[in-house]
Structures are given as structure tokens and as C-alpha cells.
Amino acid sequence: MSIDQKHNLASRRGSAPGQNGTWMSPGADALRLASSRLTRREMLSRTGACFGALALSALLADDTSAAEYPLAARRPHFAARAKRVIFLFMPGGPSQVDTYDPKPRLTQDDGQPSPKLYLGQQRKLLASPWKFQKHGESGLEVSELFPRTATCIDDLCVIRSMVTDDPNHPGGCLLMNTGERVFSRPSLGAWVTYGLGTENQNLPGFVAIGPGPIIEGARQYGASFLPATYQGTFVSNLAQPLRNLSSLQVPRERQRRELDALARLNGLHREQRADDDRLSARIEAFELAYRMQTEAPEAFDLAGETPATAKRYGLDQPKTEMFGRQCLLARRLVERGVRFVQLYHTTGGFQPWDQHSGLKAGHETNALATDQPIAGLLQDLKSRGLLDETLVIWGGEFGRTPTAEGKDGRDHHPFGFSMWLAGGGVRGGMTHGATDEFGWDAIEHPVHVHDLHATILHLLGLDHERLTYHFAGRDFRITDVHGHVVREVLA
To answer: Of 32, 147, 261, 447, which sees the most CB atoms within 10 A?
Structure first.
């Protein structure tokens, strides 16, 4: 019998091996030690290792609690440039040739037949109604739609060569937010929270904020086959963002006892359903809500912000107040350790940037509502020293055609469009990639949505090929079997 086998057998029998292979009862060694006379130095030399064991047990206890709590902060695969993400999602598809990708050729050939067909039709080219100007030390051109955001251009990396696979809103939104346009998959925020946990255990790790309806609903911020704990906490009512959280009639001590009793009953129920994570997520939701009662109300309360800060975000103007509140909430949440915040610009509809007609009026309304709040967010993050560790993303599910739809609209366009990144280890004051002279196709350094996701994870210290979850017999990841890190945009 080996030493390990003897030790295991002894453990089961309640005895332990003594010197020279003899076997002793658990108290025999203690009696022998007590019967001998030891100096203080000998006592310390024989028992000193126990102090290290005590310290080790404390560390292991911390690790155990971290492993048991699904939202505990975890180490990334490698050194991260960003610790948190704010995704400014513009549903409907902002037009690249009217925002961040100027095309003089469109102005020159306005009204001429397009050299390319769209869905088998030849349409007429449509010049942008807005002028572009150079801004900042970088001299990057931005449309007059975004005068406030243009003041931050030296912090922005504009990707002008984005491509996606789906020209329709449901599939396009799902692909941009989950990496898959048809089947249910975990959202980007859920993957990030699964990989890194969160820095504040009293707040959700992933918060999604949108005052209006969202196309495909919770699938855009859900967890799909990941444990349900990682799905986004959705906030739609900005006037009362935390409904059903306060419990003024029940003291916290009593709440704690009730939750403990409920957890014990649920634990018995869960033992019979070990393969169903929904009950575990529900138990954790109760616990998180209990913890949130002390910290979340303060985090979502904008009343303590100074008048200057409120004005910076446009809270003093009716047309910018709604998205301004979203952006200010995003800053307050990441400042308090929330890992991923997604803002949906859904004021006035679930896809407000979808201008099949009325391009000028529609884009001007949307830009006016978001321009100052976005600039305020970037400036506020920078002034607080948060921008360097916070990755900010702006864009929609696709762009819009360089040709006219009807008299004054643009159709969906997945073949080449613009998004931008800022902060979080990104090179500012630069463009990456290019579309052709009309803004049709990405012809230089195309960046697929999978590449964007791989790059976002890389900035957070996560390898997109290693961040996987085993489900239905295989390992899944947000980039599926695709995706490359766009290293040219890294600082």
C-alpha cells in the first residue's frame, strides 16, 4: 500500500500515520507532545507552520467565496487596457456618409445614376445635406451634425470600414450585440461579465438602459445559454429606474432572515434540478436586490450632481435631457464598478436612425438628441481620470446607402459603415480603414463585427478564442469561429 493510500485510509478510519509508519489515534500525538518538556523556542519551531496554514486558509476561503459567487471580480487572461465598457448603441443605422465618412464624389455626382446596383435596382446618388469640417490636432473630418462630439475627436478612433452580414434590423442588431444574427446567443455584455465578473458586488455587473422599445427585446442584452446571472439588468423608466427595490415596511434584519430561509428552501429545490441554472439566478437576484438597497439608490440618483455637470450632459434642455440622463447614469455606474453599460438611443421609437425617408429631418433630430450628451460623457470621463480605463463605443447595426431611397431617404447598408471607439487603450485622433469614393464598400482593412468583438475583448484583457462556454456538446464563444483583433487601433 502506498503512502497516499495509507493516508486516505487513515483519514477514513479517524487515525493518522505516526513516525516510522506506525499508526496512532488522532489524540495520541498530542498526548506524547504534552508529556515531553518543550522550551518556548521548540514549541514555536514545531507549531510555526500552523500560522502559515492559517493565512493560507484565509486566502483559500476568499478564493472559495469568489468561485461560489458568479459575479466576483476575476483576473483577465492578460494585462487589460480597459476595465469597463459603455456601448452607445444607435438603433436603425446612422448614415456613414453623413456622419464620419465624407465623400466629395457624392456631392459632385449628386443625382447621377449609381455605378452599382442595390437589390437589383439602379438608384441615384444622394449627396450629404451636411458639410464636413476638420477638427482637433488630428484634423479628422466630422459632419456638422456632431459639433460637440467633434471637439473630442482627438480621443476617437473612427473605424470607416465596418462590415456586417445582415441588412435587416433584427438580424443586424443581434449580430452586433451577440455575434449571431439568427440563433439565441449571449450578448456582448453577458460575455464580458461572465469573463471578468464585476468590481462592485452591490450593483449589477451589466446594466442596459433604454427608455423606448428595443427590437428583439431582451435577446440584445440577454445571457442565452450562459448562466442567467450574467444577463443585463434592464432600466427603461429613468424617472424610477429601480422599481420594487425598496422595502420600507420590512427592517433589513428581518429581510436577511427571510432571504436566508428562502435560500435554504430553494437550495433543497435546486438539488433536484442541478442542470437548471434559472433557479440559481433567481436566488442570486434576490441576494443582489438585497445588497442593492444600500448602494443602488444613490448610484441612480442624479440629484446630487452639480448644475454644471447637469448642463454638460444637456439635462437642462428638453431635446437632450433623455439621452443626457442615460449618459450621466452610465458615468455614475462605471465609476462605481459596473463592468458593462449599454445605452440604447430609443427615444421616439425602437429604431430612430432608420431614415428610409426624411433623412435630413430624422438625422438632425437624432444627432441633436445625442451629440451634447455624448460629448459630455467623454469630457466627464476624461476629467475624472476614467476614460483611460473605460472603453466607449458608438454605432448602430449597419450604415446607409450612398443612394437615395425615394426622394430624400437612404436604405440599409451592411457593406461599409462607420463606428468609433474611445478611451480604454484605443489610439485617438485616427481613422482605420476606408470605403470607396462613393461610400459603398469597405475597400481598405475591412473590420467585421466579429473582429470588433475580438478587439473589445482584447482591450479588456480577454482572449476571444479562450473565453468559451460549453453548451450542447461544444464550446461556444462570441466570435464563433471567426474574428481577429484589429491591432492597428490599439494604443
So the answer is: 447
